[in-house]
């Protein structure tokens, strides 16, 4: 019990750290995921192949390995001096983008055929059909899986703490080193994660209600 | 591409030439990306033959093999235990006794909501500080922290998957079984669970892929599985003044991807086989592991929801 009161500022910082890393990598994952999903359904074979390779590799690689790449290979080989925050965002964002891509792609497939056909018969191009007709409608079906993906992302962000980025897991390690009972630390961090994940599902439920249109 | 996509027409001559231009530009862009990375790696001396020669060393190969075996060992134990726990929790969650139901629900919700890494870490600290009274030696605290952590997390997820499967069995089955005079236990074990497992097998295996990937969390609690071994060797083996992260990560990554793809292929095969068989049991789609995307909406897995698409 004491551990929370004694280290309230640290808990706040850890909580904010988790929020920050989750938000930035969610944004990166969303942008990349939609882009790659566009590649995967496009009429251009090389882009399709690239999209498939992207999803296959990233979905089947352990996230810890991607963190190793981000923290040891990227600084050594590509660019130096990036902060743990940037590197962790890259690892989490790239990993999650593959799940977002698959969710978006299956969302695209649930849009009734007639919609795309009508768009095409009006003379719309592929990107117009996708951007103006199909994706806006797909958004609704994609929301529930996206919410699950972002909840998983929140939990995955704990790995960033193991690589030295200051968030809730990092804090637990720190407090444990100071000799506090692990059970209490566990309880409070669990509670903090619960707050975030509940908030995410509440936001998405709200979005679903807002966007829900009878088809 | 069967029947092409609905998103674009079968291209005419003009579109074909335009697509050709895009194809060339697209390939060039992808190629440029690859060339850039390869060139960078090359200037850093990561592609020199000496760097890759380390895999000719018998010691390195033995270490990788041992790491792989440890990973598989953790995976095997955790997979079996999580399936057992999953069945127990699913049955408990559907129990008629309210306290049992609540306990199981609380357990599932708690461990599904907490990051697996934090569970594993807490277990590791607990086991390490009590190692003497528990009679654990060597790296056993890490092993059991990893196995128990994977078991409670994946067991909770598998429980939700199974529960969705049990609920998807037509009510007539249950009613018929009761009408034959079967007891509750008999109905569960001989009628409901077998059908639930059959329907959910692809999802269960997809979840096992997640379990396999998550064994790499052992790296963080310094358990010597594949990833940790690779990491250690890459800092210890220095070639031309560089540590050897790149070759080790490429090789280990390839091993992980291959193992996960093999398991996913199994899930897809079972899904297709299940669709052909005329048992009347709907088989879930293998595509989406319920978790990674987490088991919040498991019940969707059975319906032909958005998860149903595959190439």
TrEMBL record, chain A:
One of its GO terms (biological process) is amino acid transport. One of its GO terms (molecular function) is transmembrane transporter activity. Gene3D superfamilies: MetI-like. The chain crosses the membrane at residues 15-39, 60-79, 185-207. It is a multi-pass membrane protein. InterPro entries: AA_ABC_transptr_permease_3TM, ArtM/GltK/GlnP/TcyL/YhdX-like, MetI-like, MetI-like_sf. Keywords: Amino-acid transport, Cell membrane, Membrane, Transmembrane, Transmembrane helix, Transport. One of its GO terms (cellular component) is ATP-binding cassette (ABC) transporter complex. This is Amino acid ABC transporter permease. It comes from Streptomyces platensis. The gene is glnM_2.
UniProtKB/TrEMBL annotation, chain B:
GO terms for molecular function: transmembrane transporter activity. Keywords: Cell membrane, Membrane, Transmembrane, Transmembrane helix, Transport. GO terms for cellular component: ATP-binding cassette (ABC) transporter complex. The chain crosses the membrane at residues 20-39, 72-91, 103-127, 245-270. Residues 68-267 form the ABC transmembrane type-1 domain. It is a multi-pass membrane protein. Its main location: membrane. It is found in: Cell membrane. Pfam families: BPD_transp_1 (PF00528). It comes from the Bacteria. The keyword Chaperone does not apply. GO terms for biological process: amino acid transport. Belongs to the binding-protein-dependent transport system permease family. This is Amino acid ABC transporter permease.
